[in-house]
Hints:
- There is one protein chain.
- Helix content is 50%, strand content 11%.
- By secondary structure, the protein is of the alpha+beta class.
- The protein has two domains: 2-33 and 111-212 and 309-344; 40-91 and 217-296, no CATH class.
- Strands 4-3-2-1-5-6-7-8 form an eight-stranded antiparallel beta sheet, with helices on one face.
- Helix 2 (49-62) runs antiparallel to helix 8 (232-242), helix 3 (108-118) packs across helix 4 and helix 4 crosses helix 5.
Amino acid sequence: MKLLDLIHRWTGGIVGLVLAIMGLTGTILVHKESWLLLPHAGDALVTDPAAIGAATEKLLAAEPKAQSILYASDRSALHQLRLPKGAGAYADQAGNVVTRWQSQWERPELWIFDLHHHLFTGDFGETIIGVAGLAAIVFVVTGAMLWWRVRGTFRFRLWPRRLSRPAIVMQHRDFGIVMAPLLLLSAVTGTMMIFKPFAAIVIAPFGAPGAALAANAPAKAKSGPLAAHPDWRAIIAAAHARFPDAQIRLLALPRKPGDPIAIRMKRAAEWLPNGRSTLAFDAVDGRLLAATDALALPAGTQVFNGAYPLHAAKVGGLAWRLVMTVSGLALMLLGSLTVWTFWFRRPRQKRPR
Length: 353
């Protein structure tokens, strides 16, 4: 147990700050749509394919360098236009730009998202977060084992009685065991999205993990060069005709010659906010080349696709958002107090007499 306690304390002292940042930023992002105070953000969602097609046509005519459109959803009635070099814009559902930016630093929801997912350092930061997620899983398991031997002293406290090391350790131990299920869920689902080998272990009981993860790849389709004026209304109408019960969530323009126009849709039974039902259209004439129905994907794939909506509280309404808010705040509190006690309230070594 001494070795276990040593590993738990040292790892927590090193990784605790990253976990505290993840908890705080994750809590803020769970409620992103609620504090995105822009004109028309609270409008009723438009689901008519003709109206969506007209707005798409208007936006892409005004912004020919656009890379993609993230369409309005039930929680935010604004389309998000993504442009090169981090620029972008929000538009209402009629295709009128509400606000625009030249860098992610002009929009708090964008740089907070980057901090939460990449620590502002791209793929390297994402790897660090994945390692921190694995460490969080180890913390929950080892913390439960260490708590068990002193379970008779359990006292639930949201905050330590005093900011002394013994009081913080007691609060950390007892508060952590109560929050353990939520913390484990957050850590497992977050790490699944970063490390595919870990995700393969989690979804292995539901079928061949390799095939399940590969099934999420978009269908291969060869396209001609992008036409000067694609018929966006016809393309949007064809997408809705293929999946009548679905909402269009994302339209991505070709990045290089030969790439098709890609559309992602969310069918009614899907949890993933942007859906995994994908369509590929020929960039020359708008002809449908391939389509993938998310509800027909293997069971393991659908379990993997459920990780993000659970992690980011994109399913379950306000009740689940509040649950994940508790999880994020708990992670922030435990991580920050761990760093504080480890680096600034370490017990003094007794000098030999």
